[in-house]
Design the sequence.
């Protein structure tokens, strides 16, 4: 009986068996243990190509949030699970962004945050939907992103419909308070991506309805390295107000060309101006930046936590621009959902995001309510560059300074 | 005859390997990698017919890609076409634009760098047109095809979710493009096209109607490239003027056959496979060696490109042929 049940092992089998056990214990088990401790979050941004600056800023903001969550004990409802960033570079191309999603799928991410531009975000959210990965769009403002019925797609910040509406309303309010100095408007917008064209269209309709006369609408591609002709046209149009809507590099170049050619409208008022509320622009070209107004994503300047995050960003040698705090907030939004779900399972995270009422953020938003993936409480603020600071000028509850409108000569 | 049997052997091996690949590769990333590799090989083949076989270097082939892609999206999104019904119109669009640009260029004898520049200008003109024709293209906002999330309608909507559908579509269009290139190499039309590439005046002197042959080549090239545009539209369900007519696609299209081997059947496929693999390997290597340093992989990729261009004037297929001949002569 004993002989029949005895397992006969020769030397080779013994060695193989030992190796298998060793491999399981040294490689397999820690892997299983690690899987319970670490939750992967995919970060897809255009960190090379023409959107490199903004994409890198987004990546920094998202990583800052992950670092902070891990320092403060990780996802507590999951036994202090740590977050791990899996970074991807969209190379400023939509199809590369989509391909990065498949890489994230392989890496087993619980959620994706990205992808800065509307065009890339459209492709990444769609690809993520195929794999059931929850995807929070950090910056992309096109309203089409959240109107395609994708159950996995969320945006905590406002889309350009809301931003343009507030942009028009604030401008009317400012103009009326100052005795209506602005009657004619020129719009300069980028036309290579959904962002600039969409804003221009919404602003044109809103301002026409409010009685402003749009005397010039000038489109330009992104990237664009020469604004001489556009500024010459602005000069001849001589509009009271210029509304630029473009990405960072083009915005800076436009403002500097206007300064050089002495085009001095009564005000420069941007809606989602690429550089209009950017500390980098203020630091590098303070004269060209003076008195530029913007209706844009902005943090709550009266929230101490927001000021802490701003300081941490500055300590890291970075500019606290909208990309940073929007990506930071997007990651925090995902972390909050995981905390409430008590799980990193994609379906559960998606469900928690859809039902989120998160209020622990640093943004000046109303109560969080997610409708078709969009946070309906999200809204922009009006800022103006005055001296060495970017001040909030509206709405009054967040204002840190009074608007200089029309701009002093 | 021997040359043809070698082709069919390679072709059969490739087709069998391509069809079997999803059985061996479980990774969705690598299947997607192969899908995009084949897609760019098709675009490269479109360029190769005109540039490689015909010697007419186009710097603005995106004009065909963008037209095919835009027609595929617009017909579905604006006019409610079924995606299958939209395909012939999209390909026809590529042919019509080919005939239009070809007529304007070849009729007035534009050759060499002049032809290259005018094709670049056509692509840019179409980009501006797509941006301005807001009512048709939705301008810079881009235009979307409604996403199908019902797997049972995958074939009807030509949207395949996370499965291997797109991969098999890419295999099919690659096979079609390879067969067209094979036909060109073995046809009277192909011989005339190559004669024009070698010396247009001499070709005309022996009775080749250079204008007609170049027109046929640009129409065929436009059709294949527009077919590539159809694939892109169905895979990414979105099109905007920059993706459609921007210089990025034009450059990608000409780099594949230049690296792989211009005027060869497999050149664009070899070039696309090599460049994609190089891109991924350099990305992975850069990440492993120096950590998160965005752009370093692109520098490595760029250096490799320059070295290949400098050292392999006949591309990778030229190198393979040279090595093969050396082995045969040794044997």
Sequence:
């Amino acid at each position: 009986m004993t002989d029949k049940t005895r397992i006969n092992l020769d030397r080779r089998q013994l060695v193989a068996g030992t190796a298998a056990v060793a491999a399981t214990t040294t490689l397999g088990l820690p892997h299983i243990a690690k899987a319970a401790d670490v939750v992967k979050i995919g970060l897809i941004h255009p960190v090379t190509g023409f959107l490199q600056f903004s994409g890198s800023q987004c990546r920094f903001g998202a990583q800052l949030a992950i670092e902070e969550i891990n320092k403060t004990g990780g996802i507590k409802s999951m036994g202090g699970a740590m977050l791990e960033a899996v970074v991807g570079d969209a190379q400023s191309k939509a199809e590369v962004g989509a391909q990065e999603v498949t890489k994230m799928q392989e890496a087993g991410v619980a959620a994706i945050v990205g992808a800065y531009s509307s065009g890339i975000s459209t492709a990444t959210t769609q690809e993520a939907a195929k794999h059931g990965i929850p995807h929070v769009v950090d910056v992309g403002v096109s309203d089409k992103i959240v109107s395609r019925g994708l159950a996995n797609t969320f945006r905590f910040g406002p889309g350009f419909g809301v931003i343009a509406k507030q942009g028009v309303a604030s401008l009317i309010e400012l103009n009326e308070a100052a005795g209506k100095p602005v009657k004619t408007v020129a719009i300069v917008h980028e036309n290579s991506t959904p962002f600039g064209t969409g804003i221009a269209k919404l602003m044109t309709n809103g301002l026409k309805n409010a009685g402003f006369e749009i005397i010039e609408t000038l489109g330009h591609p992104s990237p664009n390295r020469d604004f001489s002709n556009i500024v010459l046209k602005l000069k001849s149009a001589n509009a009271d107000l210029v509304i630029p809507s473009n990405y960072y590099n083009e915005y800076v170049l436009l403002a500097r060309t206007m300064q050089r050619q002495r085009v001095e409208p009564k005000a420069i008022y941007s809606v989602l101006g690429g550089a209009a509320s950017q500390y980098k622009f203020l630091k590098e070209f303070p004269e060209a930046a003076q008195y530029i107004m913007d209706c844009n994503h902005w943090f709550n300047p009266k929230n101490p936590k927001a000021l802490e995050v701003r300081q941490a960003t500055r300590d890291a040698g970075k500019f606290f621009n909208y990309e940073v705090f929007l990506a930071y907030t997007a990651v925090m939004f995902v972390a909050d959902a995981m905390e409430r779900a008590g799980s990193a399972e994609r379906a559960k995270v998606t469900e928690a995001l859809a039902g989120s009422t998160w209020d622990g953020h640093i943004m000046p938003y109303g109560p969080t309510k997610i409708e078709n993936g969009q946070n309906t409480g999200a809204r922009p603020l009006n800022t103006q560059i005055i001296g060495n600071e970017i001040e909030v000028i509206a709405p009054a509850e967040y204002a840190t300074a009074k608007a200089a409108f029309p701009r002093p000569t | 005859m021997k040359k043809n049997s070698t082709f069919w052997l390679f072709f059969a091996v490739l087709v069998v390997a391509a069809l079997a690949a999803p059985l061996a590769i479980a990774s969705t990333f690598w299947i997607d990698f192969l899908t995009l590799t084949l897609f760019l090989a098709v675009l490269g083949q479109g360029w190769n017919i005109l540039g490689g076989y015909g010697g007419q270097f186009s710097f603005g082939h995106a004009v065909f890609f963008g037209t095919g892609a835009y027609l595929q999206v617009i017909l579905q999104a604006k006019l409610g076409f079924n995606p299958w019904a939209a395909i012939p119109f999209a390909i026809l669009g590529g042919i019509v634009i080919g005939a239009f640009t070809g007529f304007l260029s070849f009729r007035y004898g534009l050759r060499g760098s002049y032809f290259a520049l005018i094709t670049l200008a056509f692509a840019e003109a179409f980009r501006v047109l797509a941006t301005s024709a807001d009512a048709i293209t939705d301008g810079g906002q881009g235009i979307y095809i409604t996403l199908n999330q019902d797997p049972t309608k995958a074939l009807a909507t030509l949207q395949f979710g996370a499965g291997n559908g797109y991969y098999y579509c890419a295999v099919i269009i690659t096979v079609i493009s390879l067969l067209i290139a094979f036909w060109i190499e073995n046809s009277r039309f192909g011989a005339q096209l190559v004669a024009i590439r070698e010396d247009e005046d001499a070709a005309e002197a022996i009775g080749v109607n250079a204008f007609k042959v170049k027109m046929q080549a640009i129409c065929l090239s436009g059709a294949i490239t527009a077919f590539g545009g159809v694939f892109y539209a169905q895979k990414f369900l979105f099109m905007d003027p920059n993706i459609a007519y921007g210089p990025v696609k034009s450059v990608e299209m000409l780099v594949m056959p230049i690296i792989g081997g211009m005027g060869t059947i497999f050149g664009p496929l070899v070039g696309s496979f090599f460049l994609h693999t190089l891109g991924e390997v350099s990305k992975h290597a850069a990440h492993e060696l120096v950590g998160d340093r965005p752009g370093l992989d692109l520098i490595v990729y760029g250096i490799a490109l320059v070295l290949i261009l400098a050292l392999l004037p006949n591309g990778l297929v030229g190198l393979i042929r040279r090595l093969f001949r050396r082995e045969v002569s040794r044997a």
Observations:
- Chain B has a mean pLDDT of 90.
- The longest helix of chain B spans residues 210-236.
